[in-house]
Amino acid sequence: MEHQTEKQDAVVAVYTRHQDADEAVRELASGGFDMAHFSIVGQGFHSEEKVVGFYNIGDRIKFWGKNGAFWGGLWSLFFGGIFLTLPVIGPVMVLGHLAAMVVAAVEGAILVGGVSALGAALYSIGIPKNSVIEYEESVKTDGYLVVGHGSADEMARSKVVLDANNPARIDVHKNVEAQAADVPASALYERTAH
Questions:
Q1: Among 37, 25, 68, 27, which residue's Cα sits nearest to residue 155?
Q2: What are the b/e assignments for 12-31, b being 16+ CB within 10 Å?
Q3: Which of 77, 79, 93, 156 is deepest in the core (most CB within 10 A)?
Q4: Rounded to 5, what percent of the chain is helix, strand, coil?
Q5: Residue 147 has pLDDT above 60, yes or no
Q6: In sequence order, what are the beta bridge partners of 96?
Q7: What is the pTM of this model?
Q8: Res 73: pLDDT
């Protein structure tokens, strides 16, 4: 018997204020959503700030700096996270399921010609190329992405929660198909000849 993969939807909400993103994530968690299907992405600090540091003890993490309380407060709601500096975007914090995909993109050396590992991770869950570029730009300009990926019903319900928290933009990508884990950078961006 042939096994068919059920297509899923993805929802992406863009927030300009970390308070709105924080409230949206907390409402998802308290609303009974499976947080394994969600991620939050944003710049860890502004370029003019210095990262003082962060550490973890068990499943808790403590951040210092301007947005330390924001990121530290959200850490326990997600399954894993990373902080790294990406070409094109700069310093980025990713909490949730996208974190492992960003790490895989970095380790797989698919960063070519200014392509972001964040873009590769978004593309790998089925987000269209044109939207990936727009979402990267939102993060680059101090925005926050709350990304969900799952059944159409769960994503429709999550959109209602996300939409109630003042997103600058919210998109539902229907019937997305996960791409291969080793997505070549050229699949996302056209190379420019030098």
A1: 37
A2: bbbbeebebbbbbbebbbee
A3: 93
A4: 35, 25, 35
A5: yes
A6: 39
A7: 0.77
A8: 55
Among the residue ranges 5-9, 29-33, 35-39, 57-61, the one predicted with the least confidence is: 57-61
Q: How far is residue 70's CA from residue 7's CA, in Å, rounded to a whole number?
A: 33
| Residue 144 predicted with pLDDT over 60 | yes
| CA–CA dist 39, 16 (Å, integer) | 16
Using the predicted structure, report yes or no on whether residue 9 has a pLDDT greater than 50: yes
Q: Using one digit for the tens of pLDDT, what is the confidence trace for 66-112?
A: 554 555 555 556 667 777 777 778 888 888 888 888 878 777 655 44
Structure tokens at 145: 């992405």
How many CB atoms are located within 10 Å of the residue 173 CB? 18
- Return the sign of the alpha-carbon dihedral for residues 160, 31, 80, 108: negative
> Three-class SS of residue 191?
coil
Q: Distances in Å between the alpha carbon of 5 and those of 114, 175, 180? A: 32, 11, 14
